[in-house]
């Protein structure tokens, strides 16, 4: 039985906050169920791994929880977060600009290898 979930945020745009709740909620639930959860943020969603960005976004206007709170909740349950190395250049940042919950970099080759080895299930957003 597969015990690993790979969540890939590639089409999720931080400018559309209503898109941001589900992936982090699913990460938190899966991690709380003792699955190994890796969340890769790439393309525009990679901005969520930059310190200070997710803290300013609310999935629902007027709700006290920010997207960063959702990330911290999932991380608290054991989900691991990864940034795309190409995003460093795209957004003119360094690894020191990333949130503390980000484990580091997961490049395309690692992500594709993980998907193709059949040892994980994949959700994309």
Quick recap of the structure?
This protein is 30% helix and 19% strand.
Structure characterization notes:
- With 125 residues, this protein is of the alpha/beta class.
- The chain has one domain (4-124): DsrEFH-like (Hypothetical Protein Ychn, Chain: A), CATH 3.40.1260.10.
- It is built from 4 helices and 5 strands.
- The protein has helices at 21-32, 67-76, 85-90, 108-116; strands spanning 4-9, 36-41, 80-83, 102-105, 121-124.
- It has a 5-stranded parallel β-sheet with strand order 4-3-2-1-5, with helices on both faces.
- Helix 1 packs parallel to helix 2.
- The mean pLDDT is 97.
Largest sheet, in brief, is: 5 strands, parallel
CATH topology name, in short, is: Hypothetical Protein Ychn, Chain: A
Structural class: alpha/beta
Sketch the topology as an H/E string, one letter per element: EHEHEHEHE
* Shape, per Cα inertia axes: globular
CATH class descriptor: Alpha Beta
Question: How are the secondary structure elements laid out?
Answer:
Blueprint: E1 4-9, H1 21-32, E2 36-41, H2 67-76, E3 80-83, H3 85-90, E4 102-105, H4 108-116, E5 121-124
Parallel strand pairs: 1-2, 1-5, 2-3, 3-4
Helix pairs in contact: 1-2
Keywords:
alpha/beta, five-stranded parallel β-sheet, 4 helices, 19% strand, globular
């Amino acid at each position: 039985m597969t015990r690993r979930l790979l969540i890939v945020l590639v089409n999720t745009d931080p400018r559309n906050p209503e898109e941001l709740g589900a992936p982090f909620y699913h990460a938190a639930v899966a991690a709380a169920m003792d699955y190994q959860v890796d969340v890769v943020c790439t393309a525009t969603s990679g901005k969520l791994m930059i310190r200070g960005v997710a803290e300013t976004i609310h999935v629902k206007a007027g709700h006290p929880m920010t997207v960063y709170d959702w990330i911290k909740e999932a991380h608290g349950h054991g989900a691991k977060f990864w940034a795309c190395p190409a995003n460093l250049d795209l957004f003119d940042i360094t690894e020191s600009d990333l949130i503390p919950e980000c484990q580091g970099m997961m490049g395309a080759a690692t992500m594709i290898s993980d998907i193709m080895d059949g040892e994980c299930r994949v959700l994309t957003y």
